[in-house]
Amino acid sequence: MTCCLLLQLGCCLLVLGSALAARSSGRKATVTGVVALTDLEFDSQVDTGKPWLINIYSHYCPVTQELESTFEGLAEALHPDMSVGKIDGTSQSGLITRFQMKGFHGVYHLNGTETRAFCEGRDANACEGKTLSQQKLLNFAKEGWKAVPPRTGCASPVSRCGRAVGNVAKLPAKAKATYFFLHDVRQFSDLTIFAGLLAVPVVVGLSFICLLDMYYSRRPLAHRQCRLAAPKSAGPTLLRCCSTSRAEASADAAATPVQQPDAAALAAAPSAAAPAAPVRKRRKADPVTPPPPASEFPQYVPRDFFRFDVLHTSKKSGARVGRIHTPHGVIDTPGFVAVATNAALKAVDGPWADAEGQQLMFCNTYHLILHPGADVVAAAGGLHAFMNRQRPLITDSGGFQVFSLAYGTVHEEVNSLKRGSGKSRHKQEHNLVAKVSEEGVTFRSYRDGTKMLLTPESSVEAQKQLGADIIIPLDELPPYHTEPAVLEASLAKSHRWMARSLKTHLSDVRQQAMYAVVHGGLSLELRHKSIDYLTSLPFDGFAVGGSLGKDRVDLFWLLERIMPRLHERMGAPKPVHILGIADPASVPQLVAYGCDTFDSCYPTRVGRHGTMLTKEGPLRVISGKYKTAFRPPVEGCTCHTCSTHSLAYLHHLVKAHEPVAATLLAIHNVHFMNAQMAELRQQILNDEI
Ligand SMILES: [Zn+2]
To answer: For this UniProt entry, which residues form the secretion signal (predicted)?
Structure first.
């Protein structure tokens, strides 16, 4: 920055010097007699408030001498009502351009912003010295000019456009004058002048970059959760996505080994104090407008098409085994929810996943309204018919994708703070989110840049067209690094949006259940406030969203403290979904807190990147040690992949970049997640967790 300022100062001095040079190079002309007009001072010279008669000539012209006396006589005759000037066209090329001359001889009458020609350029006869008698010129100067059509606009050198043209045309003259001033008057060497000339674009460029940096460093950060475990030696870490969906984590994260929860780290977690989220910047908080009271809503009435039965609650923890009954079948809980962003799992056909025990799939409204469009899906008969799926579906509001695509991930946010930069995210934010207002969020489609408005009402209406069994109201995504006042305002807005969403939903329920999304970041006070408000409204279930901390320690610290209150306030049991977290290392602990369903694209994503999930940790199929492993990839696994192919064959497919490798590994991982859930359910039934 200091360098920038010094360069800017140098540039300013150079420009000032140039200006002084240009000014000092001209001589102030008198308005008496015939005034020699120049490129550099033409505008100030003719700015006398009186008309001008101007002779443009070439000093090579043989008639110049005889015309000189003619115009001197005119100057005396016309003074003081009119001024007379002359322009040497051979040296004042800028004025030749400005007068739009095609030859070097012309006589002009200037009055205000209008210009009239007595004779000019190729009209050689008219401008012939013998015909330019003083009397003819005198007549033209006094009254004759009125009979000539005026030039206006850019054709007139004294019009606004003509002045602009003149400013451009005299740049070479200015540059020449500046050079002679610096070289002859200031005694600068050519090398110094050349270096100074180069410095100008460099300084301008650096200044531009500095300004951009200052601007973006003051823009807000934001993110939302979409997590997956990526433990490191120092402790468990949650990586948050998503570039394409709530639960899609980064490819790098996919390659990171997954471990079981770090008991030592958990024990070391603060017992009461909230995990500290560093505040990166100050953002003005919106006024906190309370959401509509519960009295504006009807009492919750159990649905005949949606029911949650708790079959058993562990005597050891809050873990519970249950069944969610939906119009498209049962969801056993605790249950894994596979993410089908575009109404399809990545690399895995729906029936293949169903064969591995997949019950509930999570589709993203944001992507589906952009393509193929909610109306197209509705015309197909809804998502179930469009996908030909007979099992339950859940869709989100679309808000998560709007914000997360624009803001990037928590992982990126945390890393950008470490690097001291957040330019890529800021660039995305600037490009994709146009405006967040009380009405909703205006954003640009990542597909074609189309500007769109997503409101609580339009989100629910789109989800009605999609027709999933479970839908989610629109909410705002509070940043991880934010101030308490901003977080509180964001929570209030989310509550207002969810209330509007619920009203829209209740006006046309169809056979859909709606889950509220509990927000409040890492603030227990705000989380409790969110729980208290949302459980007072007639929602069918609850999801836990918003910022859940930077790592698994934060996550467990928060869930351990809010889940009891959520269960207590909801009264009759309702399902609880954890948005975007379903990694094998986190799920067992979350189940113990009484969480029921978990969505993540983690299993399919790591599968696409050559990793199989196992109880012993991730298995990197590409490793050379599996080249001759002619055995089932995972002993005891009953999935299609492990029942059909050897580990050596999968290793070969991955090494050969065969697309089917992604499919086979993802199938195993979906099976693994569902098998893990089944095992957890049995452990709960046995009161083991
Ligand atoms: Zn398998």
So the answer is: 1-21
Report the candidate in 261, 329, 361, 328 with the shortest Cα–Cα distance to residue 589: 261
Check whether the bond before 242 is cis (ω within 30° of 0).
Answer: yes
Which CATH superfamily hosts domain 227-264+306-602?
Answer: Queuine tRNA-ribosyltransferase-like (3.20.20.105)
Instruction: Please name the amino acid found at residue 422.
Output: G
599 is catalytic: yes
Find the 322 Cα to ligand 1 centroid distance in Å.
Answer: 26
Distance (angstroms) between ligand 1 centre and the Cα of 406 equals: 36
Looking at 2.60.120.280, 3.20.20.70, 3.40.30.10, 3.40.50.620, the CATH number of the domain 9-180 comes to 3.40.30.10
Q: Are 495 and 291 in contact (CB under 8 A)?
A: yes
Tens-place pLDDT, residues 30-81: 456 888 888 888 888 888 888 898 888 776 666 666 677 788 888 888 888 8
Query: Is residue 580 within 8 Å of 246, Cβ to Cβ?
Result: yes
CB 316 within 8 A of CB 688: yes
Separation in Å, CA 432 to CA 414, 444, 455: 21, 5, 16
The mean of the pLDDT values for the chain is 81
Q: How many C-alpha atoms does 474 have within 13 Å on its Cβ side?
A: 31
